[in-house]
Write a structure and sequence with these properties.
It is built from seven helices and three strands; from the N terminus they run H-E-H-E-H-H-H-E-H-H. It has 185 residues and is mainly alpha-helical.
Length: 185
């Protein structure tokens, strides 16, 4: 539903932007498009479609001076995240801090060790919408405290193997060693 609303807004705004010869659209996706959750099986694919749609728009409307970008947040301290933390806390009897740590582990770790703040996401969106980002279009900007970098490069990189040669990794991009800790030899 939200994706359709965004498309309707785009359809309303794009003709005006074309006539002005300038404009910026910033769509907000989710890290779940890369790592879908069985708790919300349609959400990840819908966000993947939004990323693809945004890149098509960027290509189509760049010649008209219109920029289209995507912001993909990871674990952000929102009311929805807080509800999930409370669910974990109630079902396990853990403290809030333990529940946050469990959620961070469940998503594959956050190298910065904390959820993001909504204001951090808002600043990125404001930057992409501003003239300071006038040469950025068709880009997906991930704001996830390093989670996706760990999954894409950190565990299999040559640097990682040199620093942590005994490290083992499973298919969910979780480390046998907690983020920020080196294994003992």
């Amino acid at each position: 539903m939200k994706g359709r609303i965004g498309q309707r807004i785009d359809r309303e705004l794009l003709p005006r932007m074309v006539s002005q010869g300038t404009g910026s659209i910033v769509h907000v996706s989710s890290a779940q498009w890369k790592r879908p959750s069985p708790l919300s099986p349609a959400y990840g694919p819908a966000k993947a479609a939004l990323v693809s749609y945004s890149k098509v728009l960027a290509t189509e409307f760049a010649p008209h001076g219109i920029r289209v970008n995507v912001v993909t947040p990871g674990f952000i301290a929102t009311s929805l995240a807080e509800q999930r933390i409370e669910q974990i806390r109630q079902s396990t009897g853990e403290t809030r801090e333990q529940a946050v740590a469990e959620l961070i582990t469940a998503i594959g770790g956050v190298p910065l060790g904390r959820p993001g703040d909504p204001a951090e996401v808002a600043r990125l969106i404001a930057f992409l919408a501003s003239d300071a980002a006038s040469y950025i279009t068709g880009t997906e900007m991930v704001i996830d405290g390093g989670t996706s970098r760990r999954c894409e490069a950190g565990h299999g990189s040559i640097v990682s193997r040199l620093i942590r040669p005994s490290r083992s990794v499973n298919s969910n991009c979780r480390s046998a060693t907690p983020p920020g800790k080196l294994p003992s030899r």
